Amino acid sequence: MGLRVYRQRRSDFGDSTVAYRQFLREHGIELDTGMREPEDQIGLMLFAVSQLIEQQQDVGTVKTLLTEHLLTWCYRYFELVQQHAKTQSYKQLAGLVSLWCEVVQDVLDITPNAVKLYR
């Protein structure tokens, strides 16, 4: 599908990616899939959330990942998927995961950092 949302103008690894990598290192999370892909893509970020929960990390750590990294851009990404996906399954999945993020954000009382997004 090729939809992307960036937190910096260039599509290479910018400050936000470097900060996210540092966060992962600090919490012992390795996301090496054997493929050449950035750690901050949606599937791997959701996997990182699951790893923090599985490791029984403090909820504050999970909130940090959500506040500073995932929730800063995911809603825009899900909006684009729903607008441009060729299949209903991707559109529905984007809606479902977006709803999950909204519920988690509400339950954990999170206000995501405001960032400028690029496409």
Automatic annotation (TrEMBL):
It comes from the Bacteria. Transmembrane segments: none annotated. Keywords: Chaperone. The keyword Chaperone applies. The keyword Chaperone applies. Pfam families: Nitrate_red_del. PANTHER family: CHAPERONE PROTEIN YCDY, TAT PROOFREADING CHAPERONE DMSD-RELATED. This is Putative oxidoreductase component of anaerobic dehydrogenases. It comes from Vibrio maritimus.
